[in-house]
Amino acid sequence: MDITAVFGEIVTLFIMAFALGMDAFSVGLGMGLIKLRLRQIFYIGITIGIFHVWMPLSGIVIGRFLSDQFGTIASIIGGVLLLLLGIQMFVSSFRKEEEPMITPVGFGLFIFALSVSLDSFSVGLSLGIYRVHTVFAILMFGFVSMILTWIGLLLGRRVKDWIGAYSEALGGSILFAFGIKLLLPI
Prior knowledge:
Elements: H1 3-31, H2 38-63, H3 69-92, H4 107-130, H5 134-163, H6 167-183
Helix pairs in contact: 1-4, 1-5, 1-6, 2-4, 2-5, 3-4, 3-6
């Protein structure tokens, strides 16, 4: 195997992993604006990393059998989930209770990780068609998204202290805007 071809594939996969991880970073930044402990941030990063392994792997397997049309459906579902999470965070920021209606714990963490990683399913579909090195690709996607999620959550946690009571409304607005971006690709 040609070393330049291998290096080119590694660089290409890293760029794709970084692009997919930026979704996790952006959403993590918004979600970091709610009150989270460091242990929760750790588990959220691990969970999103796992989803960014599982979703493209599923996409790669299915992509070897299906057309590109299915990838659009995954983006729509991810966009709708982010819209709903954003609305929920925004509305709960005006409630008297301290806890948001959906938190990134338990089932809420599952919804959060699923909404962030659905676009990696779409990428997996296309990678399955091109017969990429599956194990390397999914491990890189998982690792990069986990690191970027942690960075986003920790940065959001810092920003929360600066903007105080409006942090959850801002976080919800970020998630909502990101959901619109997925639904209306520009």
